[in-house]
Design a protein that fits this description.
The complex is a heterodimer of chains A (256) and B (193). Chain A is an alpha+beta fold. In chain A, strands 1-2-3-4-7-6-5 form a seven-stranded antiparallel β-sheet, sandwiched between helices. In chain A, a hairpin with a 2-residue loop joins strand 3 and strand 4. In chain A, helix 1 crosses helix 2 and helix 1 packs parallel to helix 3. The radius of gyration of chain A is 24 Å and the shape is globular. Chain B has 193 residues and is mainly alpha-helical. Chain B folds into two domains: 76 residues, Rna Polymerase Sigma Factor, Chain: A (Orthogonal Bundle), CATH 1.10.1740; 89 residues, Arc Repressor Mutant, subunit A, CATH 1.10.10.10. At the A-B interface, helix 1, helix 3 and helix 4 of A face helix 2, helix 3, helix 4, helix 7 and helix 8 of B.
């Protein structure tokens, strides 16, 4: 039989999801019969929820950020990218390469030019939103406030999902510019990290599966769905961003 | 025989690889470590409770991390950086003749039982700043445990490794941290009413 003293410590492991199934059952059985421990668990749950919903992080002062940037030797100077023409010449000389392979490589090269510029814009927009104290135009944790705010401002109606229960707090929305076009930025927070989710019109209606990449130390997840192009960027780790993307997709599909 | 040979060769390798100015190594470090700067800084603010000290500690942490980047063998980068930061913070404390965060546990009297709350009472929502203040007011070992768990989101195992204590100790420190926090939360509530 579990005592209140044992349960008092173990209920934290229960709360943190660190308890094995056997012990979890024991603690739950104790709590079911002990109003005092049940009240504690309820308070700890409320506290943990309040803490995960609050912004408890401290923003790095920009002077410190530049000092640290300065102590890391600068990135190697990259040789200028070969022009498309010289690449083609290379293929012409490479007799072993089949024409099909050359065409597919060329496609990748051409696309990456466009991509590079667009992703550069995404990173700049993300950094701007963090530095300029201009994270949101419409600060709200309510999806029903954020979604209509975009009406009339954009040619698209971006889906806005409430992911609070999944650990991603909605902070609000903002208009931003990527590649010279106005896009919706939906802003979420995970612990101390900000996630910017940019939504723009897609060039094709075909949905595409999510792609992950890392750019300048930020994780990026891109996908296309319902004629919309989604780009999520954050400094959270790749797994958490993948989790965010999957949950957002599921929630917006359910809401559609 | 085998073992000695292997050890020698790994030492030779790490001696060769420790070039801070190697641009490729710097690029890898930048990509791996810089995204965690906000979290490292947040942890420093909570551990040291002073903005200027936190600035210095984070800078020193990144200097050391860059220098010892070769000893980082994959795995998660965040706990590795946190462990370095913690050592830097401990050194800061030692210099100032503050209480060592590890011995502070004994210095704290057994915490008083939180007041009994009727089951109908619900913890009131508090604003961000007052939650920060309550966390900051915790004694060092408990503050460190709760920040690593609730703000940095680490597992018990990761916290145990960083603070150099068994998982069971981490769990009991978290229990005490939350118990003190709950008492503070409730008393702040009483004042507010």
């Amino acid at each position: 039989m579990m005592t209140c003293d044992d349960a008092g410590v173990l209920l934290h492991a229960l709360l943190d999801g660190e308890l094995d199934a056997g012990h979890a059952r024991e603690v739950e059985a104790h709590i079911a019969g002990c109003p005092r421990c049940a009240a504690q668990l309820r308070d700890y749950r409320a506290m943990r929820q309040a803490m995960s919903g609050a912004n408890l992080g401290f923003a790095v002062p920009s002077a410190l950020r530049s000092r640290i940037d300065a102590i890391i030797p600068a990135a190697p100077v990259r040789a200028p990218a070969p022009s498309r023409r010289s690449l083609l010449q290379g293929f012409a000389f490479g007799a072993a390469l089949s024409a099909a392979a050359a065409a597919s490589v060329l496609f990748v090269v051409v696309r990456s030019d466009e991509d590079q510029r667009m992703l550069g814009d995404v990173v700049s927009a993300h950094l701007r939103s963090l530095q300029a104290e201009h994270l949101t135009d419409v600060p709200s944790t309510d999806q029903h406030t954020v979604k209509p705010w975009f009406n009339g401002k954009l040619a698209v109606a971006p889906p806005v999902a409430d992911l609070t229960a999944q650990g991603f707090t909605l902070l609000g929305g903002r208009l931003d510019y990527i590649d010279g076009k106005a896009v919706a930025a939906i802003v979420y927070r995970r612990r101390v990290h900000v996630i910017n989710l940019f939504v723009a019109q897609a060039s094709a209606l075909e949905p595409t599966a999510a792609r992950h990449e890392m750019i300048q130390g930020f994780n990026v997840r891109r996908w296309t769905e319902q004629g919309l192009r989604f780009i999520a960027i954050s400094d959270i780790n790749a797994d958490e961003l993948a989790d965010f993307g999957a949950k957002f997709e599921a929630a917006s599909r359910a809401g559609a | 025989m085998m073992l000695a040979g292997r050890r020698r060769s790994s030492r030779a390798r790490s001696a060769m690889a420790g070039d801070v100015h190697d641009p490729e190594r710097a690029r890898r470090f930048r990509e791996a470590a810089l995204p965690h700067l906000d979290e490292v800084y947040t942890l420093a603010r909570y551990l040291l409770r002073n903005a200027a000290d936190a600035d210095d500690a984070v800078q020193e942490c990144y200097l050391r991390a860059l220098k010892h980047f070769d000893t980082f063998r994959g795995g998660a980068m965040r706990p590795w950086l946190f462990a370095i930061l913690r050592n830097v913070c401990k050194a800061t404390y030692a210099q100032r003749r503050f209480v060592d965060p590890d011995t502070a546990e004994d210095a704290v009297p057994l915490w008083s039982e939180p007041p009994e709350t009727p089951e109908s009472q619900v913890l009131r929502r508090r604003d961000d700043q007052s939650i920060r203040d309550m966390v900051s007011a915790l004694p060092a070992v408990f503050r460190e445990a709760i920040v690593l768990r609730e703000i940095n989101g680490l597992s018990y195992g990761e916290i145990a490794e960083i603070v150099g204590a068994p998982v069971g100790t981490v769990m009991s420190r978290l229990a005490r941290a939350r118990s003190i926090l709950r008492a503070a939360w409730l008393s702040a509530e009483e004042k507010a009413q």
